Amino acid sequence: MTPTAPASSSTVVGIGECRAINSPGGKLITYALGSCIAVVAWDPLTKTGGLLHLMLPDSALDSVRGKNNPALFADTGIPHLIECCMKLGASRSRLVLRAAGGAKVLEQNGMFDIGNRNHISMRKALWKAGLFLQGEDTGGTLARTVSLELNEGLMMIREGGAPWRELPARRKATAAAAEVAGR
Fold first, then answer.
1. Measuring CA to CA, which residue among 81, 76, 114 is closest to residue 98?
2. 3-state class of 17 per DSSP?
3. CA distances to 34, 81, 88, 132 from 9, in Å
4. For residues 167 and 157, is the Cβ–Cβ distance under 8 A?
5. Which CATH number covers residue 95?
6. What is the number of structural domains in the chain?
7. Phi and psi for 99 in degrees, rounded to 5?
8. What pLDDT sits at residue 109?
9. Quick one: which of 149, 154, 151 has its CA closest to 180?
10. Local confidence band at 24 (pLDDT 50, 70, 90 cut-offs)
């Protein structure tokens, strides 16, 4: 199958937003991930998916903003993403998690290194939640666009003007799919 651009009927997730859906044939997409990171969650049984477009690593410096918009930060956004998916029927134990972004697009000297700080904070938040990534495409210097197709759990990535490509999930996704097929 040749990767193609996501359909125009996709649900768009903006910067500092989180969306979860369980619509048959549904797609989530976010654009222009520079130092921001997209975290996608997908349940192969319920076909529920969520996409978080986090912008900053830690809400500690602005706890009011973190409370009012948890999707803006890695530390508050990860639990929010999981909660949103579970409200739509996803099981925490079946979730297939992948991430992309965290590039150095504006600041090559790394003075603030927001992309790397976002990556570290995302990993810490996942670890605290007892969850781990099954696929990842982070770092580099190019902005990315990311989509998640809910029927098959396909996570597609486009860097700069390059063609779309799939970011497959590792082992846990295969085990989750086998569990679904066995039911």
1. 81
2. strand
3. 24, 22, 20, 30
4. yes
5. 3.30.1330.200
6. 1
7. -145, 155
8. 62
9. 151
10. confident
